[in-house]
Amino acid sequence: MRRGCLRSKVIFLFGRVGRLLRYLSGSVHYARVHPWLWRDRLRRVRAAGLNAVQFYVEWNLHEPEPGVFSFEEERLDFQKFIRVRH
Fold first, then answer.
1. In this structure, how many other beta carbons lie within 10 angstroms of the beta carbon of residue 44?
2. Where does the pLDDT of residue 69 fall: very low under 50, low under 70, confident under 90, or very high at 90 and above?
3. What are the distances in angstroms from CA 2 to CA 10, 28, 72?
4. 53-80 burial, b for 16+ CB within 10 Å, e for fewer?
5. Given 1, 26, 30, 53, which is the most exposed site by the fewest CB atoms within 10 A?
6. How many Cα atoms occupy the beta-carbon half-sphere of 7 within 13 Å?
7. How is the chain split into domains, by residue range?
8. β-sheet with 9-16: strand ranges across
């Protein structure tokens, strides 16, 4: 794959109302992107032809020490990331 290309993968084919729906997913790491760029990144995912986004919660950032939790920092607000519309 050329450098700088968006990596995507076919996750599964689903039957939906008599037709197959193909999920093409790209990954966005919300904690590594400034929150003001989240909408742009999700638009780029859509523009690349993908119809699903996968992300993981980087728990080591949310619990820096055992029993100490951090969700206040804006870039760690994954609920806000989920609510962003493309």
1. 15
2. confident
3. 19, 19, 38
4. beeeeeeeeeeeeeeeeeeeeebbbbee
5. 1
6. 6
7. 25-83
8. 9-16, 19-27, 52-54
Task: Give the span between the Cα atoms of 76 and 56, in whole angstroms.
Answer: 12
Structure-token pair, residue 46 = 């859509």
The pLDDT of 56-79, averaged and rounded, is 84
Model pLDDT, residue 1 = 44
14 token code pair: 């689903």
User: How far is it, in rounded angstroms, from Cα 1 to Cα 62?
Assistant: 33
> What is the value of pTM for the model shown?
0.69
pLDDT score, position 42 = 93
